[in-house]
Amino acid sequence: MTDTAQSAPKRPSALREFWYYFRENRGAVIGLYVFGFFLLVAALSPIIAPYDSTQQFRDHILQPPAWSEGGSWAFPLGTDPLGRDMLSRLIEGARYSFFVGVVVVTIASFGGIIIGLIAGFAPRWLDTIIMRIMDIVLAFPSLLLALVLVAILGPSLINAMVAIAIVLQPHYVRLTRAAVLSEKQKDYVTSARVAGAGRMRLMFKTVLPNCLAPIIVQAALSFSTAILDAAALGFLGMGAQPPTPEWGTMLAEAREFILRAWWVVTFPGVAILITVLAINLMGDGLRDALDPKLKRS
Amino acid sequence: MLKYLASRLLTFVPTFIGVTLISFAFIRVLPGDPIIVMAGERGMSEERYAELTTQYGFDRPMLAQFWDYLTGVLQGDLGTSFVTKKPVWDEFFTLFPATLELSLCAMIFAILIGLPAGVIAAVNRGKFFDRALMSTALVGYSMPIFWWALLLIIVFSGNLQWTPVSGRIGLQYYFPNATGFMIWDAIASGQSGALSSAVRHLILPTIVLGTIPLAVIARQTRSAMLEVLGEDYIRTARAKGMSPRRVNAIHALRNALIPVITVIGLSVGTLLAGAILTETIFSWPGIGKWMVDSIFRRDYPVVQGGLLLIAVMVMVVNLTVDVLYGIINPKIRKR
Known about the structure:
The complex is a heterodimer of chains A (297) and B (335).
Chain A: H1 2-6, H2 14-24, H3 26-48, H4 86-121, H5 124-139, H6 142-153, H7 157-184, H8 187-194, H9 199-235, H10 247-254, H11 262-290
Helix pairs in contact in A: 2-11, 3-4, 3-11, 4-5, 4-7, 4-9, 4-11, 5-7, 6-7, 7-9, 8-9, 9-10, 9-11, 10-11
Chain B: H1 2-29, H2 34-39, H3 46-56, H4 62-74, H5 88-123, H6 128-141, H7 145-159, H8 182-189, H9 194-229, H10 232-239, H11 244-266, H12 268-282, H13 287-297, H14 300-328, H15 330-333
C-alpha cells in the first residue's frame, strides 16, 4: 500500500489488479472460500474422515442423522443402506469430484487451446475442416454423447472423464480460435512478425497470453460442468462404479430408499450443488475481473 | 437474404454427413460383436452367425457399409432394433411425442416464469428483489437435476402425496394414443379424471426439466434488459413522459427479446440432454429413456439411429434459429 503511494504512476501488478476487481463481487469471494474449503476437505480426506468409506457397520444400517430421532453422533450424517458412514463417504467423494474437475479441464483445455491456435493460424481450408468437425461434435447433446462414448469405452470413472473432456473440448477450440483471430489483426502481432518471430513464437508467446482471459473463465465454468456431468453419468450407472463414494454414484445407490431414508439422497446432492454453485459464483467473478469490456459496467 | 440462407444451408450438408459418420462409426467401434449380442445367452451356430453377418452386411468393406447406411438414412431407413425387431424410425416417432410434450411444457414453464423474473430484476437493478432473484437463478443453474427430481419426489409424491411418482397417466385410464400427446388424447377420450391424471403426471417432470432453462432465461433476460435500458431511445421515451411500465414493456422488452429468443432456441440441446435424466427418473416413455435403455441393452441400431436423429433435430433447430436471427437482425447477414 505504501509502495503505491510513493510511486503513484506505477501500474499495479496484474494479480493485484485482478484481485481488486474480483473482490468487488461478494458472491465470487464467497464462492472462492467455499471452493477452498472443499479443496481442503478433498486434500485432507484420509485424516478428517471418521471411518473408512467402505467400512460397513452391519448393526447401524440406515441410521438417521445425529439430530433426528434414532441418530447418534457416532454417525453425524447417518448411514447408508449398507451401514457405511455418510459423512466419511461424502468427504472421500470430494476427492473424486475435484479429481474429475481437474483432469477434465486439463485435457479439454489443453487439447482445445492447441487445436484452436492451429485453426486460428492455419490456412483457410484447414480452419474450415477443424471448425466443421467441432460443429459436428457440438450437434450432439453433450450428456448423450458422453453417455454413448462411455458405453463404448466401458463404464468407469476414468472413461467418464475422457468422454466429458471430449465433449467439452469444442468450446475451448471455438473460444481460442475467436480470440486468436481478433488478436492476430492487431499491430503488436504484425510488428512481432516483422521483427522475425517464427510461427511457433507468434502462436505461443505473442498471441496466446493475450487470449487467455476468456479461456480461464471457460475453464472455471467447465470445471462445474465436468462435476455435474460426471455425477449424472455416475447416477445413470455409467460413471464411477460402486462402492466408489462418488456423489452421483451414491445417489444412484440410494434411489430405491428415497421414501424411507431422506438423508441418503439429500446429502450427496447438497454436496454436488454447493460445490457447483461455488465454482459458478467464482466463474462469474472471474469473468467480471478478467473481461475488460464488462469492467465497471 | 437468399445468399445468407444458401450459405447456412451449405454448411449444413457436411455437418450432416459428419454426424452420420460418427453415429455410424460408433456401432463399429463398440466393444463386443453386435451379432453375438443379438444371439443372447443361447449362443448360435457358426452357419447362423455367418448368415447374419452377411444379412447385416458386416462382412463388406467399411466404405460400402457407410454408403449403404447413408443412402438408407436419406430414405428414412435407420435399421431395425435388435430387441423389438421394429424399425428404429418408427420407434423414434412413436416415442417422440412424449418427449416433445414434456419439453414443450418445460419450455413454457421456463419462459412464463423466467421472462417476467428477468424483466423485474432488471428494472429493480441492485435492489433486494434483483439480488434474491439472481441468486436463486444461479442456484437453479447449478442444480444437479437428477437430484432435484428425487427431492421433489420425496416432498410432493412421498410426504404430501400430491403427484404420482412415474409414468404419464394413471393405470385405470385407457384410451388409444391417437396423437401421442397425452394431454390432447386425454381430452379427446372424454373420460372423466383422465385429463387431471395426465396433468398431475406432467407437473414434476416439467419443473425438473424446466429448471435450468428457467435460470438461463432469467439471467439472459435480465442482462439483455439492462443493456437496452441504457440506450438513448429509452431515455427519449422516458423524457416524453411515457409511463415507466409502457417504456419497459413496449420499448425495452421488445428489443431485449432478440438475444433471449436465441438462447431459448439454442437450449434445445440442453433440453434433450436433460430429458435423458428426467425421463429415466420419472419412467417417462420418451426418447431419452429409450436411448438410455438401448445403451444398456446394447441395442446398437437404436443407439446409432437415435443419436443421429437427435443430432439432426438439434442441427435443424439451430439452423432455424440462425436464419430467424438473420431475418430479425440484418447486420448478421452481412458477415
